[in-house]
Amino acid sequence: MISQKSNIELEESIEEAFTIVLGFVKAIGNESRLLILLSLLTGEKSFNDLMKVTALQKTALANHLTKLIDKALIRKPSVGNYMITEDGRLFLRGLDSGYKHSSIRDKNEARKEQSGQFSDTFISYFFANTTKI
């Protein structure tokens, strides 16, 4: 159980950096941008690789990549290539940790077991990455 002091400290910390935190949340709040971040966890990817993973048109992908670069969640180490930054990795770890310790996860896992289904996003990401094996 989180103590009241911890809640107050958390509130103060987020309030202090509210605009920055909100920018991160907005940046990853889009399915395509989150998919881009997840795909970059396995290493540097080209623009074309990211087009395949996301199934986005060039202009849409470029706009999403620009938003992620502007928030310093990814960077462009060379022309046409992208990689996740340490901040991007840390932000995803925070999301993962929060989800793993949430009651929402338990409810979703039980629902998946009952239905025997995976999300469309997971299926498309999984098959996009296993066809290269």
Give me a quick take on this structure.
The chain has 133 residues and is mainly alpha-helical. The protein has one domain (4-130): Winged helix-like DNA-binding domain superfamily/Winged helix DNA-binding domain (Arc Repressor Mutant, subunit A, Orthogonal Bundle), CATH 1.10.10.10.
Tag the structure with descriptive keywords:
mainly alpha, three-stranded antiparallel β-sheet, 133 residues, Arc Repressor Mutant, subunit A, 8 helices
Description:
The chain is mainly alpha-helical. It has a single domain, classed as Orthogonal Bundle (Arc Repressor Mutant, subunit A), CATH 1.10.10. Helices cover 71% and strands 8% of the residues. The chain has a 3-stranded antiparallel beta sheet with strand order 1-3-2. A hairpin with a 2-residue loop joins strand 2 and strand 3. It starts with a helix and ends with a helix. The mean pLDDT is 85.
